[in-house]
Amino acid sequence: MTLFKENFLWGAATSAYQVEGSPLADGAGPSNWHHFVHQPGTVLNGDTGDVACDHYRRYAEDVALMRQLGLNAYRFSINWSRVLPEGRGRINPAGLAFYQRLVDCLLEHGIQPCVTLFHWDLPLALDEQGGWANRDCAAWFADYAQVMFRALGDKVPLWATLNEPWVVMDAGYMHGVHAPGHRSLREVPLVAHNLLRAHALGVQAFRAEGKGQIGLVVNLEPKYAATPSLEDAAAMQRGHAYMNRWFLDGVLLGAYPEELPAMFGAHWPQFTAEDMRLLLEPFDFLGINYYTRTVNRDAPDALPPHAEPVRQEGAEYTELGWEVFPEGLTRTLLWVKQRYGNIPLYITENGAAIIDPPATQGGVADPRRVEYLRSHLLAARAAMRQGVDLRGYFAWSLLDNLEWSLGFSKPFGLVKVDFTTQQRTIKDSGYFYRDVIASRGAALG
Ligand code: FCB
Description:
It contains 15 helices and 13 strands.
């Protein structure tokens, strides 16, 4: 008996900057990612999102591919500065029209659009005013969200406010490897807090319009200790608080983990009770992006969380250096249920960066990605058997795309993209996923 219900969402995900290209077309304003990638040395091999998968112009072809795979849902994000070139105020109708065309095309093919409002590309104009370190950014986000709810609310049943706020904070403001490229311990807690305030204000704006469901997407990784020592156990706890609990405790418990003030010392601000109450604004579902686990050892001199990852002898790693660890997905889903309650969940991203052979007449053989998908879907099913309310699964990604500062060197797609010709070829993993969908999970074995 399959546990995957008739209305289970079988999707694939992308994000605007990673696939669209045409970043300044039709009156769009620049995003901070557009600006960032054009600074020397920021992206491997000097790759940029100027063309990417050319999805902005080839979306109809891509929707046809989704159809071929049998997807019933597509998760994509909006480039905020296409719609509001200065980030606030003036609307650019031509930018909005692109997303209207995409949504209509999906609906015509029986594919449910699932929109993420913020997947890391912030309008440059707002970045220049401090970006997420500026408290006002939360209200700017809510105003932008309202524009989108009004434009697409009748047609889009599932919305996410933010994608992985942790990465924005950690990669963008602590380590400087993502836009806006800051390295500021002082900004990090402010950015995290303003992102969550933005989420809460976005949910409030959504309630005012009153259609569909809205949630938050976070990336979670179970943490393990490298040795049984007390130091490594504490490093594991800090890593867990920093990455997994910070955002979820914030929006579901209304308090930040007590490990954080100690980690940030003088950089940890006081947050008002009013702000913390705001964060508790109820939302409808949680999206979980799951890729791997980390094994931590104590690293007192490192940046917060003062822990560093240890590679596991004999384990399988993907091209991103991420260990393949499917049981971590079961554990993560169960942990969320046990700590925060039986919230409706979606796996909003899951996938593997693996170098593929060239496409041939026979397609693209990617057996390791097939195995990755199979083992993680089985791990998800195991959690459902234990009562987790999982309502959908989105493979990352539909297409090979721009893996942020790693450029085009890390393919995640179910569909291979030749970036010189823009030719698409469905990989074996795409066909495997198609069979899983068609059999409602029976093809998993
Ligand atoms: C996640 C991001 C997504 C993609 C995958 C590999 O952190 O949300 O855009 O880059 O990792």
